[in-house]
């Protein structure tokens, strides 16, 4: 978790990109600017015109050497626990492929003892992005979607049981791919239309496998069946529209898309979380708008404070990211310069460890 402090600055020392730590009001009692506002050159000039001599600025507290060491140790533990969990998922998927039956008891235990604890990790989505990807994409992706889906369910303040169902659905959303031929799943290069149709059957296959299980919520089955449906009816397998897509499926769909585009795959290199946010914003006609906005607003908060590589080669830290559509972050370079990426026509290339 980021730590902040409030510090008073003389107005002449205030720089564009700084964030107000408290409301500023005029003698008349009228509010001029509210806490959390990001200052621009125009706003600073406005404060000077109002004869404001000092302002309180909210700053990110730089971690100490000891805190950095603790953070690195936590990342190491996260990576170890993540790797262990992926191997268990692989065993469950391999068993399902061999027996055509999901070992649901093992999967439930995994969800409770391994997956749910991840949701309490600080810097969770950042740690997920920094995980090294390998040939275990299907199993890593299943874990990621369970974690991201469970996190989004918590952001939506869903009831406990619904969060549990979404975590389980995340683990199972691609289980039907064990029935798709390996030569198609592992193919390097573009799939033929026939091969694509075979892959698209995986949500139906997964639903059929889950229907055989006792004591699994119908919401889990529906989420697996519908996770590729889209609000405008362009998805599959049923071409359902928004009103006919259940909420757990909408949550899994967003988690699925976000993780897919921020992970390296056989046929596609990953993009940064910052590019992924822009992609999801453009997909809001296809993804549920309300659920997607909740995800985007929260994930922007998650990546404030991150060190990033800019398109001009400089390193910087994200200090603000507005919540309106297509907003680009404001960053601070190592030299202390605050930059609006939109104004400077720059972009974030990657997140730095």
What do these coordinates show?
The chain is α+β, with helices and mostly antiparallel strands and 353 residues long. The chain folds into 3 domains: 57 residues, Molybdopterin biosynthesis moea protein, domain 2 (Alpha-Beta Complex), CATH 3.90.105; 236 residues, Hypothetical protein af1432 (Orthogonal Bundle); 48 residues. The protein has 14 helices and 10 strands. It has a 5-stranded antiparallel β-sheet. Strands 1-5-2 form a 3-stranded antiparallel β-sheet, with no helix packed on it. Strand 6 and strand 7 form a beta hairpin. Helix 3 crosses helix 6 and helix 9 packs antiparallel against helix 10. The radius of gyration is 23 Å and the shape is elongated. The mean pLDDT is 90.
Key descriptive features of the protein:
353 residues; alpha+beta; Molybdopterin biosynthesis moea protein, domain 2; Hypothetical protein af1432; 3 domains; HD_domain; HD/PDEase_dom; HDIG_dom
Shape estimate? elongated
CATH topology name of the largest domain, in short, is Hypothetical protein af1432
Query: How many structural units, i.e. domains?
Result: 3
Strand order of the largest sheet: 9-8-7-6-10
Q: List the uncertain runs.
A: none
- The N- and C-terminal alpha carbons lie at a distance of 16 Å
| Biggest β-sheet strands, sense, barrel | 5 strands, antiparallel
**What is the residue-mean pLDDT, rounded to a whole number?**
90
Sheet-strand content, in percent, reads 5-15%
> Can you tell me the CATH architecture of the largest domain?
Orthogonal Bundle
